[in-house]
Design a protein that fits this description.
This protein is mainly beta and about 300 residues long. The chain is built from 1 helix and 26 strands.
Amino acid sequence: MKTTKRTVRIAGWAMAAGLTVSVGAHGALAQIPGAIATTFQRGDVIVSLEPGPVLWYGPDGTPKRLILGTEVGTGEGMAFDAAGNLYVTRWCIDGSCNTGNTVEKYTPAGLPSGRFGGPYNCNPHAIVFDRTGAAYVGLAGCSGDIVRIALDGEAISMRVAPDHQGAFWIDLAPDGCTMFYTSWGPNVKRYDVCARVQLPDFNRAPLPGGAAHDLRVLSDGGVLVSSGEIIARLDPSGTLVQTYEIPGEPSLWAGLDLAGDGTFWAANYQSSNVYRFDLATGAVRARFNTGTPSHTVVGIRVRK
């Protein structure tokens, strides 16, 4: 791969985060000295960066590797499939949407392996998989649809009601039908992807912060959602019951994901800090900084 100014800039970020960098045929790879990062492991924390790369950390926040993919476009929401492949959604990076506007697939070893699905209309921003292996991609621009991509590649677009930004972030409930989503507004919205009908908003009152981003459906039927300067927890009735924040730190909470042990990771777009919160108490259990500039950290995924 030809070394570019972009590669050099990203390599600088990686070294600031304690990583060593090499450039190979599959892109720019950065790895912590002495660490072995062969495949994604349970508990690994994956962070997408708006300029495009992906940062790979261990369960305790120790950096493992940086991967620069082969597709252009911003780094947005992510998901793992059952086989351990990672998918990163990428917005357009030009006004006519001729570049970017795709989903990039990575192998379980973190190597880029081409585009997934598409063409998209437009700006894919979030992706989840159901138990059958079908993917759902939320589009933040143009149609604002949620696109279901079956195992055979058949794509079905579903028009959902927006607030401001289409299907910005999405998460599928355990019933396999209820898609919870946000649209850069004050609501947690819902759509039945089985019956293909719009459902009432989940929240009983506008979310504090007013700019809902990533969300996860909790085991009790409630929802955890990043919302501007705070992270909000809604109970199964949609009532706000708890908030999470870092006092004194300017915040715009973006991606978040459950760790599976009663904690969750969340990314602060303003500071490039990533925190692990106790879901019950709100206490901070761990933190790290990505070493990247402000307004670069977007998505979070934990390998389950």
